[in-house]
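Example 454, ligand pyridoxal-5'-phosphate.
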Amino acid sequence: MDKRTKFTLDEKEIPTHWYNIQADLPEPLPPVLHPGTGKPVTPDDLAPLFPMELIKQEVSTERWIEIPEEVREIYKLWRPTTLFRAHRLEKALDTPAKIFYKYEGTSPPGSHKPNTAVAQAYYSKIEGAKRITTETGAGQWGSALSFGCATFGLECKVYMVRISYNQKPYRRIMMETWGAKCIPSPSSDTKAGRAMLAKDPDCPGSLGLAISEAVEDAVSRDDTHYALGSVLNHVLLHQTVNGLEAKRLMEKVDAYPDIIVGCIGGGSNFAGLFLPFVKDKIDGIKPDLRIINVEPASCPTTTKGPYAYDFGDEAGLTPLIKMFTLGHGFIPPPIHAGGLRYHGMAPIICHLLRLGLVEARAEHQLATFQAGITFARTEGIISAPEPNHAIKVVIDEALKCREAGESKTILLAHSGHGHVDMAAYDAYLSGKLEDYEYPDEKIKEALAQLPKVG
Ligand SMILES: *Cc1c(COP(=O)(O)O)cnc(C)c1O
């Protein structure tokens, strides 16, 4: 095996097509349902929200979908991204395991998110939209879409969960630098926002509620599309550009992962990395490959939630999606991994969990920060709180290899840097960070509101 530290591809080797797992699933995904009729949604139902090309991608079963030339041109600003061998982390852990990580933190907004933001902005632009609305939690998606819209000259309006808007000004300033408008949610600009403010003027907001506002804004205007940064099939599809690069790079190193680890909020960064590998598991080429999805113990969607139809947003405006869910009324505890605080999960990941092709685990935030500090002091990169969850599990698995004397190959999906999250590191380093166990009664309460289907 190649012993170098960094492995890269040439700009010319950026994949020309995204990989669509829907072509290879052993059973098809359950349909997405219209909230009014309970029947499968039609393209017409979604047309007020999304460009038609994305609506087609959402249900396509074609294995390869071409990445438009204009999108690949913009990808060149940071793609292909580097595969690293974590020699120094391996040494610090004294493990025979070989640890690799594919690092997405070198994109302009510092995460994997522009892989889809740029594509979504492109399709809206060529289908005639002038403006895109979206929601954002901690601000990573809002900043990625602001960048994407800037590259195609579109207006962008971001509804940002109020508690983050107040606590984390730097992502908002990034959005404004790229020319977007960012306002706190709940806002007085929409019916959903005004209804919540009437109930609770101090409402800290939630991702579900911010989605309601952004969707309402988009459907009320002809010139506006809505964009979602995770969960949906087309978002995971766009992220496979990263997994395809990773697979080619692992081949160059002459290695194949035994274990792939990533963090899941809505599931897009990790699915983007592992989907091209899961195909080998389905095809029986690598049947013992383990794929570990890591979520926060305080937002235990796939480890504690039921598999049920639920809304994607708080107000119940979106179609019904079959997924593991904590209930659309779920208001998450204020952990620092803002990108992992969503009540639902990508239907593709849920389906693969049900089929036993991938597994899931939950971790507490203190242990994840400890892992992040170990990573920073060995590999140098200061990671976002989200990938720290995955780093925690990589370290655990590498230590198991030490116990067992096994030299497994571990691949980490590293979704981004933590340079805009230094307040979280400050809280950890000064001993102010706490763990939250999400109480079982609260989960029951939120689940009592699940919509009745069929
Ligand atoms: C948004 C975000 C996540 C979580 O979103 P997924 O769709 O699950 O990938 C993870 N890491 C970083 C750095 C993010 O910005």
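Summary: The mean pLDDT is 95.
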